[in-house]
Amino acid sequence: MPESASNVELAHRVHESGHHHGAPNGSAWLGIAEAVLLAVVAVATAWSGFQASKWDAVSAKEYALATSTTALAQERATLAGQDRLYDTVTFNGWVAAKTAGREKLAAFYERRFRPEYAVAFQAWMRQNPLTNASAPAGPIFMAEYANANAKASAKLSQDAVGIFNRGVSTRETGDSYVEVTVFLATVLFLTALSQRFEVMGARIAVVVVAFVLLVVSTYWIVVLPRA
User: Fold this and answer.
1) Are residues 190 and 209 in contact, defined by beta-carbon separation less than 8 angstroms?
2) Using CB atoms within 10 A as the burial measure, which of 33, 64, 137, 188 is most buried?
3) What is the pLDDT of residues 65-99, one digit of tens each?
4) Please, are residues 3 and 182 in contact by the beta-carbon 8 Å criterion?
């Protein structure tokens, strides 16, 4: 991540600046504290930037997978529509042949029914539809009617939504690591600023604020998931 590289470079410059200007009021212990802050920030920034990059990659992969899964779902939905159209056309042909008394032609259409449709057709025939006015209008209205492509399409669509949501979640995690990097950049700024103060109280106050921000940043690094 560019943010992490910039922060590490800034930490190096601040460290060199401290050596050139010296520690105001000869406060060696405060200089040591600032050096420790810089060292920890450099490591934490590198780790945060690394995690942000990995989570961004995971998010991009999830988005790509969601797109391909959606395409597969649409493909199966198209096939399901074609199956239903075929079922309707062959059934209409069977009805026409049956009502015309052309039993051989009707039997021909029955042999051309899809296996899934044939199950629903047999269940429909047991309702005596030719004489039973309360029977369903056709096999596609029977509970036994199934379409494997339609079921696969629904399942793929559901999977695509889940994958996309995972992509959103991983993206948010990557953004959280970027926010941590911004906090760490603030720590670097405050550490550099503290070395410019000659008043010990002001210098200590700035270092304390920087330390608090570092603790908060470290906490988020610990609790955030790792890629």
Assistant:
1) yes
2) 188
3) 999 999 999 999 999 999 999 999 999 999 999 99
4) yes
